Amino acid sequence: MIFEIEIDGTVRSVSVQPIGDAGAAGGLFQIRIVGPGVGSEGARDPFLVDARPTELGLSLAYPDTGRSVDVAITPRPAGEQLLQLPHVDVRAVLDGRRLRRDGADGGAGTGEQRVAAPMPGRILRVMVERGQEVIARQPLLVMEAMKMENEIRALRAGRVKDISVAAGHSVESGRLLLIIE
Amino acid sequence: MPASRSAVKVLIANRGEIALRVIRACRELSFGTVAVYSDCDRSALHVRAADEAYHLGPSPAVDSYLRIDKLIEIAIRSGATLVHPGYGFLAENDTFAAACVEAGLTFVGPDPHVIALMGGKTSAREVAVAADVPIVPGTREPFDAGTPLAEIAAAAAVVGYPLLVKAVAGGGGKGMRAVARAEDLADAVTTARSEAGAAFGDSAIYLERRLIEPRHIEIQLLADRHGTVLPFVERECSIQRRHQKVVEESPSPVLAPETREAMAAAAARVAAQVGYTGAGTIEFLLDDSGAFYFLEMNTRLQVEHAVTEMVTGIDLVQWQLRIALGERLTVAPGQALTPRGHAIECRIYAEDPDRGFLPSPGLVRALSVPGGPGVRDDRGVAACFDIPTFYDSLISKLIVWGETREDAISRLRRVLDEYRVVGVSTTLPFFRWLVDQPAFAVGRFSTTYLDDILATRSEPFVLPTNDDTLDALVATAVAGWLRAHRALSAGGSVGRAWRDTGRRESLR
Questions:
Q1: Residue B286: φ, ψ to 5°
Q2: pTM to 2 decimals?
Q3: How far, in Å, CA of A176 to CA of B262, rounded?
Q4: B441-453: per-residue pLDDT in tens?
Q5: Residue A81, Cβ neighbours under 10 Å: how many?
Q6: Mutate to test the interface with A, among B62, B413, B476 (most CBs of A within 10 A)
Q7: ipTM for the assembly
């Protein structure tokens, strides 16, 4: 099974192949990552991981290096996963709705960002225009929610393809605000 | 101790960590406790901790925690005799205080007319002037909604630029705008008025000179009903984001002992001037020459009261309650004014610091709170609690104590590393970054320090290592595989399994 996973603007495709009796209770998996290389184990292709479900996510152990780590995994709106590692939070966007069977090639994905309202609130300002180029973390719009003004920023660079809200609109959590391609 | 204490019952007209803080003080005094809750707070920690709990109404604050009529009715129904307002919500609402008094209840705080007097920013400034306490130069009379801009512009020219447009009824940075040049005044006045009108129902404003890189330093005080006013060692609250305090400490890393004494005396004069009773705080701005100016008074307990408790050993909330019952203050002035060691507080919010501190409400799946020496964690959230979107997203106030400021910072670094909140993004990574900043280490910062940094910063506060990124990729992919595997192996109920998976995924 192949997953396209975006972390901090970089999309990689990760293939997961169960080994032996790996199943619902976890077990040994063969991992192959296509995309910019990462980590001690990422240098090997493919590499193995022993992954076991925990109450909050997964316990990972890499048999080749002996390294082990506990990861808490929480699904967030818009396909985002919050991964909480011992000292750092990592957000990954899983294009899980487009997951494919093995055999398909691991392309880099379309890279389209669909920016959704992270909470209910009111749009105060829209700071970009359709067609505008934006850089990673550039503020896109300002929402008032939870008694505060909150900037919604771009995850990564791109061009604003569509804006579906305007200042003054009240939006529900998860409502599509704009699309960056 | 009066034997009648066990008959005292306190209604806490608030929620979250401050409701819990008041419940703890009540327990230690053997008082009964009554909690109130909105729809979304049914299983909140404060509800679980109190002796009794009553439903207020729907989740929006206007339908629950701001409903004066319901709060009074619940107080009477439950047999409570005291009402503690906490901070926020109705804590500085003189109508609420008056309604309590009228219903025969004791409001834990100053008299309603004192709340009204000190709550109006311009009238509070007049009190400070009368008490011979310097104020930041500015306009003395408020401009109501109808005042023409030309009149405000003329006054602005006298005050001088840069200046601040401030809502008379403001607080927490709402209804406040900085203006650098005369041509920007009109816009600032318009936004300040509309924000203040929406937030406080009062769009009156005034102008104040903007000091360059001032520090925010405040004096806690207690005043009993027998004429004793007790000022405490100062708190330093200059680490702010958009006028909201983020880190507070006591004592200040820069205040000279003679300035502390002068500031404490000034604060006591302001309180005495209005016949203040209960706990309150006088906020000052300190400029780089060491001169200080009255900023405003908060006629309630403050979020950051705990740092004062840590360095003086005095329980401010217990004293609030004892003063409300008419007891005399018996604390020695020297104990209140002389800090023992150093305390620092971090406000841990469910906010994502790497996305402009965007609120990140949702289900807290697990919490692991540090312990060990010198640590105090005042939290209002437990695991399995869904942080609501209706109120601010404070998870906890983490307070550390050390013999010196340096010790306190080392301890803070250790404690921040131990703290885990699973399920939502928090401001913990930001604090882990902040404690390593040289300016923070030496205490060289002003109220604009943080906003100046944040305005230009774009990289994350804590960067994941290559191994972290790999672990995240592997975990995401394997978790995805396990989900699909479970769904597909659910046999006849595949459709249902997919739906359930989808539902889980859509959880905030």
A1: -110, 125
A2: 0.81
A3: 56
A4: 999 999 999 999 9
A5: 24
A6: B476
A7: 0.73
